[in-house]
Amino acid sequence: MKNRFLAVSAIIVAASAILLASCTTQAPKRALIPTLSAPETAMTTMHAAGPFDVKLSPQVLAVEDKVEGATLGRMSIDKQFHGDLEASSKGEMLSAMGGTPGSAGYVAIEKVSGTLHGRSGSFVLQHNATMTRGTPALNIIVVPDSGTGELAGLSGAMTIIIADGKHSYAFDYTIAPTP
Fold first, then answer.
1. SS in 3 state form for 103-165?
2. CA dihedral of 54, 147, 94, 135, whole degrees rounded to 10
3. Per-position pLDDT tens, the chain of length 179
4. CA-to-CA distance for 20 and 165, rounded, in angstroms?
5. Burial of 13 (0-12, 13-18, 19+ CB in 10 A)
6. Cα diameter, the chain
7. Euclidean distance between CA atoms 86 and 145, whole angstroms
């Protein structure tokens, strides 16, 4: 049973890495873009970028997967962000590999703690990714109202870029005044 778990875990880690790599693109060059958050309040969308290191570790599923079909997996996430976001994160990923080659999906939640352009605090990122027969889709957003400290009011979306085996991020965000 332990050997089966290790074999399935290795497959899930490999599939998740392939899915993550397939869902990435080169981030376009971005300028500061003013956005309206309320009829009379203009906020500036900021851009953060930099490299990050990630470690995915297979975990035991909370429920046993004995049913034929898609292969389920669970992993812990441990990241170190550098650049405009100097932070660490811890999280959990759930993944599924479909029976058709090139089809898979994952969801993840990770709590990020550190500094973003010099502002200290923490926030939570929510991942949702699918790959349908090799066609990827990735969405990573800040969980609403998850920002703390100087990052209270944070909202935004992150893109992951994998080039030449190295990971980096592009993060467009705003920080609304807190009530």
1. CEEEEEEEEEEEEECCEEEEEEEEEEEEEECCEEEEEEEECCCCCCHHHCCEEEEEEEEEECC
2. -80
3. 444 443 434 444 444 444 444 444 444 444 444 444 444 456 899 999 999 999 999 999 988 777 788 899 999 999 999 999 999 999 999 999 998 999 999 999 999 999 999 999 999 999 999 999 999 999 999 999 999 999 999 999 999 999 999 999 999 999 998 77
4. 12
5. middle
6. 61
7. 20
